[in-house]
Amino acid sequence: METVKKEKSVINTIVIKFDAISQNESFARIAVSAFAGVLNPTVEEISDIKTAVSEAVTNCIIHGYENCGGVITMELMMEGNTIHIMIQDEGVGIANVMQAMEPLYTSKPELERSGMGFSFMEAFMDDLHVFSEPGEGTVVRMSKSIGMLPRMVRDMDEV
Amino acid sequence: MEENFAVIENYLMVKMPSEVDHHESMALSKKADEYILGNRIKNVVFDFEDTKFMDSAGIGVIIGRYKKIECFGGKVIAVNCSRQIKRILDMSGLYKYIEVME
After folding, report:
1. Domain ranges of chain B
2. Does A51 touch chain B (CB under 8 A)?
3. What pLDDT score was predicted for residue B33?
4. What average pLDDT does range A101-128 have in this prediction?
5. The domain that contains A142 carries what CATH number?
6. Given an 8 Å threshold on Cβ–Cβ distance, is B59 in contact with A116?
């Protein structure tokens, strides 16, 4: 009888909870770049992931918790060469997710927000899902595969 | 933060920090506006030489200052932009409003 050999993929997960204060935006970026580092990403790939995480965490701080603080949960999971990221708050939630995701839309124009947060997450990651319930909070799930092009091509692209 | 700002004639030069995010941008915008209003600034130059990271908060800083000076015929110029910064500026459609110089 022939046995089908399944390729084992490495699974690694970390969960971090931190206060919803703006100082932690850079902490979240450093954490995700350290986590993704083992996949040997290019400068551009790591920059994409950091930008997406920065946008999601900033959203939790200024929209989810409306600058009044709270707890943000960030879960990072590595499955093979794919990074799955979940960022969650238990803040005010979003009544109309479709509208919130439109480029240039911002519910807080007085804060000089560009309305590009979700657009950047969508552009820089392979996929993005947003779940929200008013009064319950918001969950952002996104993922990105690292090294989809041969390393040499990816490095050349960066010159 | 004062050392990041310089006034040359009617130009305000802003040296952008290494990481331009929501945390950094709040004080940066406030300080830039003080200079713009207090020194009759017409044009603003953002220098990204030291900037390793920028997200959409940086776009907010640029658009916000642009709105303050464009009604007086001023312009916004970005210099020393890395590939990553250029990509962010391009995706936000800012190339229509600002000059990007090497």
Report:
1. 15-97
2. yes
3. 95
4. 90
5. 3.30.565.10
6. yes
| Mean pLDDT, residues A84-110 taken together | 93
CATH 3.30.750.24 holds for B15-97: yes
Distance from CA of B56 to the nearest CA of A (A): 6
Residue A109 falls inside a structural domain? yes
User: CA-CA distance, B18 to A80, in Å (whole number)?
Assistant: 32
- Residue A120, domain extent: 11-158
Whether residue A5 lies inside any domain: the answer is no
Rounded distance between C-alpha atoms, residue A134 and residue A122, angstroms: 22
Let me know: does B46 contact B79? Beta carbons within 8 Å: yes
Query: Given CB atoms, is B88 within the 8 Å cutoff of chain A?
Result: yes
* ipTM, two decimals: 0.92
How many structural domains does chain A have?
Answer: 1
- Mean pLDDT is lowest, of A106-115, A121-130, B25-34, for A106-115
Note whether A58 contacts B61, CB cutoff 8 Å. no
In a domain? residue A138? yes
Query: Across the strands, what pairs with B44?
Result: B12, B76
* Helices and strands per DSSP (H, E), number in chain A: 5, 5
